[in-house]
Amino acid sequence: MLKAKKRSLDPMADELLVKAANDNTKLSWDMHEENLPHCGFGEMGLCCTKCMQGPCRIDPFGNNADRGSCGRDAAVIAAENLSLQFLSGLSSASEELKDVEILKESQNLHSYLNGGMNLDAEEVLQKTFDHVEKVYSKLDLSSENNIITNKFDLNKKKVVISGKISDQTVNMLKEQEDVEVYSLLNEYYYEDVKPLTNYGSQEFIVMSGFPDLIVFGSGCAKPSLLELADKYDVDYVYESDLSEFDLNDVESSGYMEIDYLDFDLKNDYEDKLSEADKIALVAGCNNVKYSQDNRLKKLTEHLLNSGYTVLTSGCAAMGLNKYFSEDDEIYYLGSCNNTTAFGEIAEKYADSKKVVAVFPELSQMKAFSQAAYLAKKSVKTYVMSKSFIPPYSEFKDIINNTNPALRIKTEGYKLEQISGILD
What we know:
It is a single chain. By secondary structure, this protein is α/β, with parallel strands linked by helices. It folds into 3 domains: 40-138, no CATH class; 157-249, Rossmann fold; 270-422, Rossmann fold (3-Layer(aba) Sandwich), CATH 3.40.50. The protein contains 17 helices and 13 strands. It has helices spanning 2-7, 13-22, 28-34, 40-43, 74-97, 100-113, 121-138, 167-174, 202-208, 224-231, 270-275, 294-305, 314-323, 342-349, 365-376, 393-402, 415-422; strands at residues 47-48, 56-57, 157-162, 179-183, 194-195, 213-216, 235-238, 278-282, 308-313, 330-334, 354-359, 380-383, 406-407. Helix 15 (365-376) links the parallel strand 11 (354-359) and strand 12. The longest helix is centred in the first third of the chain and has 24 residues, at 74-97.
């Protein structure tokens, strides 16, 4: 039980972590522990595998290699690794845009990173941050409705979609009379489709037996879900194969509830923001390095006690819904895909209020690129998770010169540190 508390605050954790142990089922926490200790070079972004002459790594203490086989130094290796993380996080937004100019810029950046132009570290990051800003600025978020429905029928077949699913597929599923559609995480907005949980709890949803069928698209589902679904007899199919799948073959598990299924956070924030003195966005994922939801919950408690009006999106919103209610000054901004909409809010109130964004348990690169975008829009943006960058003052200067409002650190931010900063 103590181990369960250390791993997660989720109300489902106590029972299901014990179940996993009894079933000899490995979950993310077990796989994380098997990977320890992490590579010290990797933690500082000083590994390079861009060609077959490596892998190369730079000695952070200056006693051995100070360059890779091709001549890249520590700053360039770290900058290129960081750039690739942001570009990876941009992939779904770039795909949604279908913009030829954006595609060409992305290809050019990748060619730079592969050594085509041999740019210095600062220019690599400057081009990357400019590209991040351009992509998210072009993204049309007007169709998102920041409402999560609490209307659902638990007696129907429970089809859970994961990741980006086409509107055509979602509508086809919703049209089935005996089917209720849910989304596993709060990645994208689907009208009248209820998200179930946040990133760190997705394994619990599968283990609980709640889904009768999971339809996978591209997104933040963990690869371990496939093995869990097989083990706990949960049917699944990729969206691309759904046309060959007979929904009549899916059996309903009958009425089943899970914790925190109702969503209770408010969404009528516009009048409240105009009255507030301080505004904070709490966004991002969970990160298995930290007790799930602990930083998220405690940070939000501190923000509320410090007089902030809190907006939240994506998986962070689903997490906060477990521990807070409509009585708290927490407002729902939308899905993860809508996180960057906070940039417009921040711009509106930048001259009259204190405005910050905090990602307390960030793990996925999509959220990392969103944080970079908000910082480019001059929002002081804190990524509390450890970032894969060298601890050199010179590299910190490069980050500050290219994206001054982005707050990332090799060692991350502890709760007490961030609390003092945000007071």
